[in-house]
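dumping this here before i forget
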Amino acid sequence: MRFLAVVALATLLSAALGAAPALEIIQPVISQMEGGDPLPPGFEHVGGESLFFSCRVSGFTKSEENKIRLAYSVQAFDPKGVPIAEVYKNDIESEVLPQDKEWQPKIELEIPTPPLVPPGAYKIAVKVEDLVAKTSAELAVPFIMRGPVVESSEKLVVRAFRFYRAEDDAQPMAKAAYKVGDDLWAKFDITGFKYGPNNKVDISYVVSILGVSGAVLWKGDPAQEQSESFYPKPYVQASMNLNLKTVKPAEYTMLIQVKDAVGNQSFEIRQGFSVQ
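structure:
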């Protein structure tokens, strides 16, 4: 009985050692250009740039004809699990000869990111299916996106209103006090709007300047944002510019009236500034 037990144990160990390796996705790389060096952990990407992603597959099984057949998909997701780009699907079919025993199939593609995305921890989800062995493997590759934090809203609203002296100023004015002849720049974000088919956005806004009495002294032309996108746009960036060369020194109010055509919503905000 002891001899039989030893034989059985040896048989099990031999089977375990001879078992085919499990299908696995290995060597994931995110770079800033095709074939570029891997980016370090914690690298922060910005909206609108492309991620150049690659990985390899190990543990695949060859058919009797020494061929492999893999099907795979790759898709990137935001921190809430919403896909930021369409899923990419493809197949790998190749003959693998004995001298190619170290060869591992490579997956590589360019993943675009939307121009406006919330900051946070994102991921690239890779799925591979071995059509010969009927096995599969998955891997989540993390990456980080940075950008302004614009608080979401259930209703239409203007966020982060700020005055500037110049369009490219890094910091807004602490106090909106201009001089006659200055350029006035105002920037703000619009969020809380609703989406139509294909994440359609239809936002318009009008900027007016009011005097101390509340009378309208100037009214700009309507500005409009109409767009569709795969990824739902989280907010709309808006800005306006006004030259103050013909404005008299006084206190003024900027009135911004926003409309959401898809959600049938409206919102207005008033911000004061002075001209000295």
